[in-house]
């Protein structure tokens, strides 16, 4: 025990720890930089870049670190690249760690539900805002445990640098044991030192996990939000001003004009020459069997999907394409959605999972529309009050029912003050007992706000009550259209009759 304690505090071994930490830290920093580049390349739409990234991973994951160390230290000098032992060790460890860190980053990004990204696009966010505000905060939370494990692995792998004469802890332990022949005490002391270092990494990992925990962060954010809301006069906090509502009384003015629209997914055609006109202030119910193209049509109208042929214009502006016929870049498409005031509510809610209800409504206004924090929270609270969720403003999406989440999603879309509201099967993901509360909100929007709305739904009686126009899709084309009550109660086309009959029977 006396020898063990002596070696545990021996300066010669402690100096070895410094070299070990040097190589580990440099290796992780370099590996992270290269790993980010590799992950970006692999997630790229360009196959060549993705192929290069995968090729790199095959080479450096498939060869031993010792071989890579020897190559950097002994082989590169033949072409004029000579490094010190520490530098060579750090470079080799960086190159070795990069593909593993790349996979950690890639898996973290892929773990984010695609629906949240689409929701960000629909709210007018440009790509780098979506990455910084939606993807990264959630992805980093899933990366931390894996990155902590990889850091421990890198620390242990740094001992292999002894093969190129880096005076790290393992090499110094070996040298000391060779001169004293006290192998047991020295290597036990060395092992304890490694355990202490890995223990520190584990402790840091737990701290980061705690700090990034959504519930932990939310508890602190609620206090700040309470302070903002408390500072607002009660009448401001609870009122939605007339400016927040876009009144567009029904008229004969054509807002949406769709001509000969074609859209295929791969070799499967979905829309086959669809034609449709929607008047300003009109409420259109979009009916049809699953696979008839309802969701695809809405996504094309919002510029979320590129269409293959035909045209879509909103207020005279061509959607999704330039006048020359080229597709818009996502950044340009985002600006177009803002300009044309297009809002969209999705069937799976697509709330941002890392922020609470009022933030889901307010933050897009701050990130994209440049509103001040107090103004955004004031507007958001008023909308949550309108949908009956003012008492749940601090709840995270995972703490709310499906019906509550959909009401938050509606409030979030209304916050952008749309002139056109697209609703894609807004109740299909809800339990039957929750459908009514969401339909009541939509009914209120139709009666009070006077928005132009296109609602894809299987709720036939709701469509009859709310919509003034009905469009029946089947096989990617408009089969029948007209006044909602007429189409629903007196359908003329056999396909419409059969569909409505089946829907009535399924009740």
Automatic annotation (TrEMBL):
Segment forming the signal sequence: none
GO cellular component, one term: ATP-binding cassette (ABC) transporter complex
Span of domain ABC transmembrane type-1: 17-205
GO molecular function, one term: ATP binding
Membrane topology summary: Multi-pass membrane protein; Peripheral membrane protein
Biological process terms in GO annotation: amino acid transport
Keywords: Amino-acid transport, ATP-binding, Cell inner membrane, Cell membrane, Membrane, Nucleotide-binding, Transmembrane, Transmembrane helix, Transport
NCBIfam families on file: HEQRo_perm_3TM (TIGR01726)
Family: Belongs to the binding-protein-dependent transport system permease family. HisMQ subfamily.
Record protein name field: ABC transporter permease subunit
Source organism: Acerihabitans arboris
């Amino acid at each position: 025990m006396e020898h063990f304690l002596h070696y545990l505090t021996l300066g010669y071994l402690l100096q070895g720890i410094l070299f070990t930490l040097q190589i580990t830290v440099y290796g992780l920093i370099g590996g992270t930089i290269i790993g980010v580049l590799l992950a970006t390349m692999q997630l790229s739409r360009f196959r060549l870049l993705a192929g290069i990234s995968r090729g790199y991973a095959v080479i450096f994951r498939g060869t031993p670190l010792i071989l890579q160390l020897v190559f950097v230290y002994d082989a590169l000098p033949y072409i004029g690249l000579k490094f010190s032992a520490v530098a060579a060790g750090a470079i080799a460890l960086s190159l070795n760690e990069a593909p593993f860190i790349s996979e950690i980053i890639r898996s973290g990004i892929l773990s984010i539900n695609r629906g949240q990204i689409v929701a960000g696009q629909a709210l007018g966010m440009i790509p780098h805002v979506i990455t910084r505000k939606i993807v990264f905060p959630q992805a980093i939370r899933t990366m931390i445990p894996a990155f902590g494990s990889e850091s421990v692995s890198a620390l242990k792998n740094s001992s292999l640098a002894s093969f190129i004469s880096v005076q790290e802890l393992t090499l110094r332990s070996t040298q000391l044991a060779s001169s004293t022949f006290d192998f047991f005490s020295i290597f036990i002391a060395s092992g304890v030192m490694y355990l202490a270092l890995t223990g520190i990494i584990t402790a840091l990992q737990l701290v980061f996990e705690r700090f990034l925990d959504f519930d932990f962060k939310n508890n602190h954010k609620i206090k700040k939000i309470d302070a903002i809301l408390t500072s607002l006069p009660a009448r401001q906090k609870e009122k939605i001003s007339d400016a927040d509502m876009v009144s567009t009384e029904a008229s004969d003015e054509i807002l949406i004009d769709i001509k000969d629209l074609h859209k295929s997914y791969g070799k499967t055609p979905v829309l086959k020459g669809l034609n449709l006109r929607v008047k300003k202030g009109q409420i259109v119910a979009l009916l049809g069997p699953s696979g008839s193209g309802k969701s695809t049509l809405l996504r094309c109208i919002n510029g979320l999907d590129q269409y293959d042929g035909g045209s879509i214009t909103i207020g005279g502006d061509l959607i999704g394409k330039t006048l020359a016929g080229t597709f818009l870049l996502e950044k340009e498409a985002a600006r177009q959605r803002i300009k044309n005031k297009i809002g969209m509510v999705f069937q799976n809610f697509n709330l941002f999972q890392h922020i609470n209800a009022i933030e889901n409504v307010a933050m897009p206004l701050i990130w994209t529309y440049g509103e001040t924090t107090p103004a955004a929270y004031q507007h958001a609270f008023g909308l949550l009050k309108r949908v009956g969720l003012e008492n749940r403003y601090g709840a995270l999406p995972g703490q709310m029912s499906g019906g509550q989440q959909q009401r938050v999603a509606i409030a979030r879309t209304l916050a952008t003050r749309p002139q056109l509201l697209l609703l894609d099967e807004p109740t299909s993901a809800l339990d039957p007992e929750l459908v009514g509360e969401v339909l009541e909100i939509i009914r209120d929007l139709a009666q009070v706000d006077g928005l132009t709305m296109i609602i894809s739904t299987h709720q036939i009686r709701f469509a009859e009550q709310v919509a003034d126009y009905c469009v029946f899709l089947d096989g990617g084309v408009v089969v029948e259209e007209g006044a909602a009550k007429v189409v629903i109660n007196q359908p003329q086309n056999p396909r419409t009759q059969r569909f409505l009959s089946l829907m009535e029977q399924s009740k």
